[in-house]
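B., you asked whether I could sanity-check this one before it goes into the benchmark set. Here's the sequence:
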Amino acid sequence: MTGIPGSAAVANGAVYFGCRDANLYALDAATGALKWKVPNDGSWVIASPAVADGVVYYTSSDSHRFQALDANSGKVLFWLPTGVYSFSSPAIAGSRAYFGTFDGQLHAVDLEKHSYAGAFATPGSSVNGPRYLGPDGALNADGVWTGDTLDDMIVNIRTKLFSLGSILSSPAVQDGVVYFGSVDGKLYALGN
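And here's what the prediction gave me:
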């Protein structure tokens, strides 16, 4: 199952995109030549990357990460564990990045300190998190993935993961307010 599910980011003469072949790619925008590709430990890169100040930021699915790469070389600068899947593209505003995860959390990352700066939990995350997440916030795979068929997987996503208020959308930041949607059917606006 390969393919490019997210949109590409274009900056400084390069095109950056993730792929379901578990790599993040950088191509020369003028020629299409491969500049570099970075493997993602067997995990799909579903979300569109964001590029700011010579750094490419992206989230991943099964490797449960927010990662930062040097835009010129692809060298890993830092990464942070998310504990769960993320299909949300990061939004960069000043020295912060914002992205959502399947556990119903909107995360803020301090890009200068390479650390989390805070998180907001949807009501579903607060109520159902103890059922499907471990004490460390990581996905309790044994509690979520039951059954052996594709139908079982779809039912588990809808009835278990989505009950956490999963944030699959990409946030937008305007005038100090972060806007994002959740599978709980709500649009959220968070101020600084």
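One thing to flag: The chain has a mean pLDDT of 94. Otherwise nothing jumped out at me.
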